[in-house]
Every structure is written in structure tokens, then in C-alpha cells.
Amino acid sequence: MALDWVKIILVESAGPINVGSVARVMKNFGLNHLVLVNPQCDHLGVEAQKMAVHAKDILESAVLVNTLPEALQGCTRAIATTARIRDWETPLLSPRTALPWLLEEPQQPAALIFGREDRGLSNEELNYAQRFVNIPTSSSYSSLNLATAVAICCYELAQGVEIHSTDNTVLLNKMANADEEISALSRHSGYESAPLDVLEAYYQQLESLLLDIGYLYPHTAASRMEKFRQLYNRTQLQTREVAMLRGILRQVEWVIANPNNHEKS
Predict the structure, then answer these.
(1) How many DSSP H helices and E strands does the chain contain?
(2) Which pLDDT value is given to residue 192?
(3) 1 inside domain
């Protein structure tokens, strides 16, 4: 069963050998969608194609974008990999614990994000994910090669799909049909999980308003907004809920801009 709804996103990957190896392991485990954010190497060069072996098609179909938000366009779930212990309430999870979450909504695009070979993902880039994966390694040598990290995560994803597909087939087919019906109704009614680009637009509007009213200050805005992102990411907001929140912000903005027209009820 191909993991057609999961994107593998590499941020500013510098090594063509790594990129080619990533394409190969993706094909090994049934993943087809590679997205390269501002790549620092030629993903179609000789070295990359040599390492890809029979997965050259994944390199050729790779999508190139300039920023991580562009790569996450349309995704409703995103997991980022990181080796750092962060001072966040959101815990770092193992691949086996975290990655099945990407399999829960196979009809919705999802993303697994990997950072640079030398320094991983920045704090700002980690803000775009809802969950975080750390691959446990030996304390005597904790540095893990990018392609190896991708391989471990792809394997765990494939195992999760296999477990789902080898259970009671009849029951699963019934569940799939029911899920499809529910999903169609949800999409029609606005109950589906909000895409990450929709959430990002809300965060930008919220930050702008909080700066305007003096709740946030420019020099601390980024760190304070991290807390809001963590809060909302834990709730898994629906599209209609984001629309409601943005409506509230628009009304507040209107009242601020038109104080004389605002009448108390």
C-alpha cells in the first residue's frame, strides 16, 4: 500500500548523495512525494542519480520550493524531526510512537520534515510542525546521517500501513467505506482538519493584531507566538473553527479602526 498522502520534505539539503539515497529509501517503502526546500545541491546531478539507483523517477518528480510554508501547502498534519531537546510542553517522541498519527487521515495530505545535515531545523521552522520526532541513538555517537534518519522513519510508516492492511480485511473495508462517507460529509461541512497554510494565515493575523494592541512587543513576539502555536497545534483545529477565530480577529480590528462607530449593546 503506497503512502501517497505523505510528503517527505528536506530543508536545504546540501549533499546530492544524501538526496539520492533518500529517494531510494522512499521508493523502498512506498513513498513517492519528495519536496526540496531551497536545496543546496543538484538533486538531478550524477551523484544523486547514482545513489537513487531505480528511484530516479522520485528525483525527477521532486517539487522544489523556496520556503517550508510553501512545502506544507495543503497539508493538515506535519511532523518534524529534531535532535535537540527543546524547552517546550510538546514532547519529543520516537518514530514508532509519533508516525502512526500521519496514517490516521489517509485522505488528507501530511508531511514529514527533515532539516539540514549539519544543524537540522531552526526554531522558526519547527514552529510549522504539530509533533516532533527524535530518533534515539547511542550517547557515544548521536549524530545520524540524513538518509539514515529518513530510512528509519519511512520503515516505521510502512510498518504502520502494513499493520492496518493485514488486520481483518472485511472489517477494514467496512471501516474504510464509513470513513469515506464521513470524510466526504466533513469536507462538505467544513469539519476537516485545517490545512497548515490556513493555520499560518491565522497566526500571522493574530500576531499582527497582538502587536497593534501592545500585547506583543517586536523583540519578544516570536517566542510568545511559539506558545500560541503550541496551544493551537494541540487542539487540531478544524477549518470552520479557524474561520470563526479569524472572524473574531476581523471584528476586533474593525472596532479598533472605527472606535466612534462601535456601540455597546
Answers:
(1) 11, 7
(2) 75
(3) no
Q: Which residue range(s) make up the domain with 155?
A: 6-166
Q: Report yes or no: 34 and 62 within 8 Å, Cβ to Cβ.
A: yes
Q: What CATH number did the domain enclosing 223 receive?
A: 1.10.8.590
The rounded distance, in Å, linking the Cα atoms of 149 and 81 is 9
In a domain, 112, yes or no: yes
**Would you give the DSSP letter of residue 89?**
S
* Last-in-domain residue among 127, 151, 166: 166
If the chain, 265 residues long, is cut into consecutive pieces of 10 residues, what is the mean pLDDT of each piece? 86 96 96 96 96 96 96 94 71 89 85 94 91 90 92 92 54 43 43 84 94 92 89 84 92 86 58
What pLDDT score was predicted for residue 88? 60
Report the C-alpha gap between 111 and 130 in whole angstroms: 10
Residues 144 and 264 in one domain: no
Whether the Cβ atoms of residue 105 and residue 224 lie closer than 8 Å to each other: no
DSSP per residue over 24-65, as a string? HHHHHTT--EEEEES-SS-TTSHHHHHHHGGGHHHHHT-EEE
Tell me the one-letter amino acid at 16.
P
Least Cα distance to 65 among 57, 73, 55 occurs for 73
How far separated are the first and last CA of the chain, in Å rounded?
58
Last residue of a domain, one of 144, 166, 188: 166
Together in a domain, 154 and 173: no
In the block, cell 520534505 appears at: 9
Of 93, 100, 99, 20, nearest to 56 by C-alpha is 20
Cα separations (Å) of 145 from 18, 21, 141, 149, 179? 8, 11, 11, 6, 38
